[in-house]
Amino acid sequence: MKNVKKCFFAVLAGAVLGNLFACSEFLDAKPDVSVSTPETLADLRALLDDEDKINRHAPGLLEMGTDDYFLDYSVFSSRPAFDQAIYLWDAAPFFLPTNTGQQWTNSYRAITTANVVLEALDRIEEANPALRDILKGEALFIRGYAFYFLAQLYSAPYEVNGSNDGLGIPLRLTSDFNVKSTRATVKETYDRIIDDLQQAVVLLPEHTDYKTRPNKTAAYAALARIYLSMEEYELADEMADAALTRQAALLDFNQLDFSLNYPFTPFHEETLYFAFCTNGSQLLLNTRANIPDELYHAYAEDDLRKSAYYFDKGNGYIGFRGSYTGSNSTYFAGLATDELYLIRAECRARAGRIAEAISALNQLLETRWKTGTYEPYTATTESGALAIIVGERRKELAFRGVRWSDLRRLNKDERFAKTLMREVDDGSTKQVYTLPPNDPKYIYLLPQDVILATGMPQNR
Amino acid sequence: MKIYFLIVSCMLLGIHKGRTQHKIKGSVVDVDGRPIEKASISIGTGGQIVFSDARGLFQFNTPLSAGAIHISHVGYHGYTAHFNDSTSFLKVILTGEARILEEVVVSTGYQRIPKERATGSFVQLDSALLNNRITTNILERLDGIAPGLQFDNRSGSAPRLNIRGINTLSDALTQPLVVVDNFPFEGDIGNINPNDVESVTLLRDAAATSIWGARAGNGVIVINMKKPLADQPTQISATANATVGEKPNLYYYPHMRAADFIDMELMLYENGFYDTQLNGVNARRYVFSPVVDILHKRDNGLLNEADAMAAIDGYRGYDYREEMMRYFYRPSVKQQYNVSLSGGDSRSAYRLSVGYDDNAGTTINNHMGRLTLRATNTLKPVERMELQTVVAYTQSNTANGVGAATSYPIVVGGGKSNLYPYARLVGDGGEALAIPYQYNYNFVDTAGNGKLLDWKMRPYDERHNAGMNRRTQHLIANLNVNYGITDWLKIEGLYAFEKQMGEMQTVYSERSFYARNEINRFTQVAGESVTHIIPPGGILNSANSGMESHRVRLQLNMDRTFRGIQNVTVFVGSEVSHRPDKSSGFRAYGYNEHLLTTQQVDYVNTYPVYGGLAGDSRVDWYGGLDAGLRRFVSFYGNGAYSYDRKYIVSLSARRDASNLFGVATNDRWNPLWSAGAAWVATRERFLTGVQWLDLLKVRATYGHSGNSGGMASTLPVITYLSPSSSWRTNLGRAMITTLPNPQLKWEDVRMINYAIDFSVFGGRVSGTFEYYTKKSTDLITDDALDPTTGFSSIRRNVGEVKGRGFDIQVTTRNLNGAFEWNSTVLLSNNTSRVTKYYGAQHASLTYASYAGTSLLPTLDKPLYPIFSYRFAGLDPQTGDPQGFLAGEVSKNYSGLLADSMQYLRYHGTALPPYYGSLQNSFRWKGVELFINITYKFGHYFQRQTINYAALFNSWATHRDFDRRWQAPGDERITTVPSLVYPANSARDNFYAYSDANIDKGDVIRLQDIRLAYTFKPKWLGKTNQLQVNCNVNNAALLWSANQSGLDPDYYELPPARAYTIGLSATF
User: Fold this and answer.
1) What ipTM was estimated for this complex?
2) Are the Cβ atoms of B574 and A11 closer than 8 angstroms?
3) If DSSP codes are grouped into helix, strand and coil, which group holds residue B232?
4) Global pTM?
5) Which CATH number fits domain A41-454: 3.30.530.20, 3.40.980.10, 1.25.40.390, 3.30.420.40?
């Protein structure tokens, strides 16, 4: 009110003298109390805790092109054109604004939020070194992890012995929208992802109270997954090790309540970092997506995953219900310990340490089967072990956002290369669509509006 | 109120002997004895016409020894006087007809100026015109009577107004500024009692609006409240009106018949459409109709074929609209009462007014009551000083039913939208019947084995189980002090205080479905033990809002005449406004409305939802706190110079600053200005001889006004979020709402206005032609941004809209004798085109599907553009809709839908470019008849049609189902595609958005009829006035260009015809 008074006098003076001057203090008042600019570390903490933007941005495309599901014709035919195009691996799916939003912008929104936090940390002078490290570590983790998702869709796969100078993804490192987006090379892309996460490993705390916030273990787990996708198996094993020494707990599936619609509870002990995707739900909602026999029948009857993950839809089809989010979200996009066992197993098998590999796998599977029914795997050759591990990897990590990435990686190996097939049967004619290994369609087109806005080169 | 008060006196001054040429002199004056210039005097029937001069004098020679002359002048009632051979001088006193008084004073909110001296574009609407429609809200009365003011009523309840088109690309900024007396009205305009309104002034061009600066880009509506007059005996006025609106006709909705719907369901069932949902684990979460339920029971052996079919056939004749109209709807009844008392002497004057409105709405639980009190006092404590105080208080209470099941169509959820047509809501014994709602009916029927609350929805009971009550209190306290330093210089100080408090309570009683459902979802049943996470009882949502506004203005006014013929009026001033507002809300569970007790719940932890209807969830939360603040500081000035009331120039300027905008103070200031000139040609000597020409005035203005909006910031803007029950953690959180965006400016509207005012033949024909061009620049729009920034758009000043148009108003006095007939024609045109736009470009499907329901700026097109896909007829073999893809007839629907914009057909805009009205008023003795016919031309609209995918999946029905292609040959008589199973939504959408469903919107409607009888009984020794009136509003749609029987002005039900009977008295 003091300002009001002051200004009233100013107005009086203004009217009489005809002076035009600003009552700057009076006009500095915030128009809306809930709106502000990031000025405190608490503001940054709040930005990174917005799970809607930070933990839920994963692109649905990461699961929409895999062989882990199929659609009935009646469902297929009622889906919008974009979903149909993605389902059939159309060479040029047309991104409507909502598709661009879900498959591109949302992840970049998380990246921009991270950039805003990193920029604000440079500006804000508040002293609290511990919190500053945590915030910086989280921001870098979020950015690196989001870049990784995008690279699995829009960048060529990383070639472990290649030059990797092909087209990667745009690496936005600033919140200034006037800075033009350009595509980095594949190498630059992965260098940035690794760098962000390596920095995060150093900065992040050992423990966090909330699994929506990453800790050191989560950063190691992310690195393990990323190195695996880069075929850097030694490094992947190292990272998995670093994570598993910190947290190795597995969930005993015998303890699950199978009568629940969704047997897993969110934040259960295997979860290292909680993230999920809701936006591919157009196709992947369990009322729509059916599980192919090939996958469903790969589980033995005593394998509890068969009922923890799947349910009979009553119409002759099987649906998925085993999300680690504990709800009918599209897929769990976070990190969990079970994946680390599989990474360890695969990396050690590839390194020729067969016994260790199989032991890691058995350790995991022991918890997946009905108590007393599990017969441990044995293997003597690298090939034999790998075949077992790769098979179990698919079964364990269904709808976890890794299948597409695995297909891109494993297709390079003739032993695991696979041609994917989709059938569209409208009752009178049956059409079959295929996706051969290493097909250019494993790299999605960038949304057309992105190309339009930036002039960046398109894929293919 | 029209005043019929005619005093005539004829004076016999001398006697002459009869001659062949008889010379008669006379004078024409008004009731105050002031001479009336250019009154036309027609003598006898020979067509001889003379005019009065500047002193009101006239003379003529006539061969007649006796006869009649008729004297008329615009703004006065005509009068017939008789003469005979003994008459030599006639003194005629003409009484004013307030409505078309030449000396109209317009108010800008800063000054009151005679219209004659104005250069800008003003429209004055007096209370007589405003009373032709009886409404609770003053703005509703302006529809169809003001040239250049357009009402977009399509969305129903809240019409969107625009003055001379739309000057912005932001939906939120399209509305004109509403000023009540001196200041923008901050509260809800529904708090103004129309009976307290004296007149409304519309400010249309820049010269008129620029004094309102950055808030006037869309034009200004100034509402002038009634004020007490000095030296007036005590007067009591009372009015009472009752308006009855017809019951809504739900059959207007082109929905499907039950029999057709049932046949469709049988077909779907046979095709296995429901199998997945019926047999799946999630079956409990889906709503199934009784028909599907019966078929399912039959297939499970619970019913035999004959019984099943008999039961199904039993449904065929129902339509729940019949029950809804009978039990849920009623004719609306609105009562309006108002009493005012006014009076004054030379030192003080007062006006007190009390109004009460009681509106019973068309749904049975809708009711509104409003009490308005207003006291205005003027006082002259000392010479040269005037003080005016206004205290006004309004209190209103609005009650409404809540819930999706209390109005048509009932939205059922559970995967469906609208309820199936054959639903029954009330049993033969008058008992409420349950409908499937949100969940599978069989699930709620048995869920919990009696351990849960009843989980069924009965719409008939729901009518009284839940309700919303909103109570608004609004207070105005104004003080104006006016001091004359000299007789030409005045200083004026104004303070205005406004406060509005709103309380909204939504009560879901424990009987309501809403409360029962919330409780059941969070009930845990384990064997015999039942745990309630939400305590049984009602649920209360409470929301409070408060707004307070302080405005101070200091103004210096100069009005000085030099050498008798030069006049200078200048005012300069400054004002400050400070308007904080806040709101808060909360929810209470276990609410007992009689004891006002509530119970605590756990909002922190998640709990399983009964029956696995959803994943573990938190108890639903409602409410929060918010506060905002708007501050403006403005400096303004206005000057006008007139020479001999012949040449007038005006200049106006204003600078605004607000706390909304920018971080750097320098960017806050936004200067806006205007200039105008007028030439009153009829005051030139060379035209004074042209006697039939009463008035010819030419005006031209140029200027800028603006729109404030958006927020400029060099730092990202973040917004803290309210908690949400869907979040996994309970952490405080914020999100980035805007990236750093320091360059944002205010929108600018530049307008050039040319106008001619004229009056001929003693006011027989008068009117105004105005032509304007507009250029709105720096329009703030969400500019498409590289999505890689994490945002798909950013607000930038990149838009430009150019527009032009005209407003014509012509009034004719067709009959001028004892039987009077006046007509007014209004015709307005506005064509605006988006000339620069870099904002979001959408897929062609967006343009075709929105079809004019959204501003949707498109380069080179008007706002609200209507596009469609080109329809190539139905396939004669299959009844499939066909379009053109790459020049070929095609059935590639997804290809057609994604076709490039350039192949879409552009029709025009959904906002009528031409609109206006024809008003006729007739008067004979005390009887008055007013008829207003309104018209709108040149626009288009999209008809809804059948969408099979939506019909199958969500029960969105449409009567076009009847007209579908069924056999070869049908393509010659219909455009509605055949039914196919499975439905193809792309096929449906292509047809729905094709040009087969675009129609012309042109309409002519009989808007208002008013019949009034006035008489003047003499009671208590004075003349009083009584008036009885009957009005019919929304009388009829006279003509419509489309043949579908749809009213293109409304998306939903057009407003019902309303009949008013009213009584008013002045003592």
Assistant:
1) 0.90
2) yes
3) strand
4) 0.82
5) 1.25.40.390
